[in-house]
Amino acid sequence: MHLPNDDHDPEPPDPGQLDPAVLTALLARHGWRRRGGMAGRYARWTPPGAAEGTTSLLVPQSRALPDSVDLLAEALTALTRSASPSAREVLVGLAVPSDEIRWRREVPDAAAGAAVWTAQEQLRAGARAMLLAGVLGTHGRAGYYGARHRKQAEAFLDRVLVGPAPGGRQLTAYIPVAGGRSAVTTLQRALHAARDATDYQRATGGMEAFEAAVELGVCHELVESLIGLVRGTEGIRVALEWSPAAGAPKGFAGRPEPVEFSPGDLPALQQAAERYVRDEPSLPVRITGTVVRLRREQPGGPGAARLRVLAGADVAQVRVALDEDSYRIAGNAHLVGLPIRVSGRLESRGGFRRITGATGVTPVQVDDAERDRLLKSLHENLDFFEEACGGT
Q: Is the dihedral of CA 155, 156, 157, 163 positive or negative?
């Protein structure tokens, strides 16, 4: 998830392919004002807060007009050169059809620069965590994901553009419709379900609504993001706008209602976050992974291995406790460039990063190319030999 800037902004669209209705919708969304024009042919738009005489855009009503492409090209050029922050937002929305999520935090006024910087970082961190929760929800429902699916979710966030966060109060994220709409719809459902569950808990003291809300995408990660965004503020507001090029998905309102949370919601949210971690069960797994580290306290006896997971669990690495025989098998497999297979339970404690009750530790044959790669990795980490051979 990164910030659009002069070096990394997407390229503006081809004027010959641009739909004037999409440009008009984005201008209106981002505060541009219509100032007249020829009815049925053109509309003149000025940026928000513009004084009289400010440069304006002349946007055709339809591509059927003979000079529509020229006018659209001139409008795009004017947007590119405009100093208005809203012009940049319009260009981002045009370049990549995206759904927009806007966060607004009501933070106290702060004169000191350090306080403003902190507020901006809190807003960015909370927004990123919320988007991550939405992406995690597309991989199946869980009250607590921990390390599961995190690598894939974080990779997706690299495709998300975010705008500036002036004063730590407002932030907009642009989520590409292609490949990203399922995350947005999951997050939209989950936020409203979290709001309803919070209201229920505050009214009755019961947590049943939070339990049911898991099926709608509410999870520990989402609730923690809300806690981080609300803490230290007078409240937050999350609003969604669908891509005008793609329109609203089936089953969703064209203009979704914003969702708001306040400091009074924090006790319910904190209780839910703790409950989701506590109640998420461990999972039986049979994983295949390469040994990246071995450690035990003395030359003989049990030890532990860290594995890079190749198959069998939706995590990047796990730690496995091994008895003496299994430890020796794991060490030998690594020294000859082979992964191992192991069965056990993936524990929720620690974020699904640990396997307990390991059994059936067995080397797994791989093709020559993969074996050569594993051996090269071993030789690049020669200090591993001491641990692999039983050192402390």
A: positive
List the alpha helices (DSSP H) in 96-176. 113-136, 150-157
Measuring CA to CA, how many Å separate 55 from each of 17, 50, 78? 24, 9, 8
Q: Are 213 and 239 in contact (CB under 8 A)?
A: no
Cβ atoms within 10 Å of 336's Cβ, excluding its own:
11
Q: Reading across the β-sheet that carries 259-261, which strands appear in turn? A: 161-162, 170-176, 98-105, 236-241, 259-261
Distance CA 348, CA 355 (A): 9
pLDDT value, residue 354 = 92
Q: Is the distance from CB of 230 to CB of 250 less than 8 angstroms?
A: no
Q: How far is the first Cα of the chain from the last one, in angstroms, to the nearest whole number?
A: 41
**CA distances (Å), 172 to each of 56, 127, 138, 286, in order?**
24, 9, 21, 41
Tokens of 344: 């056990």
Q: State pLDDT tens for residues 233-266.
A: 999 999 999 999 889 999 999 999 999 999 999 9
| CA dist 148 → 39, 108, 289, 309, 353 (Å) | 55, 36, 15, 11, 9
Token pair listed for 76? 């795009």
Beta-strand runs (E) in 135-234: 161-162, 170-176
Q: What is the pTM of this model?
A: 0.80
In degrees and rounded to multiples of 5, residue 57 shows phi and psi of: -105, 135
Dihedral sign for Cα 135, 137, 138, 142, please: positive
Residues 373 and 388: their CA atoms lie apart, in Å, by 18
Q: Give dist(CA 145, CA 316) in Å, integer.
A: 13
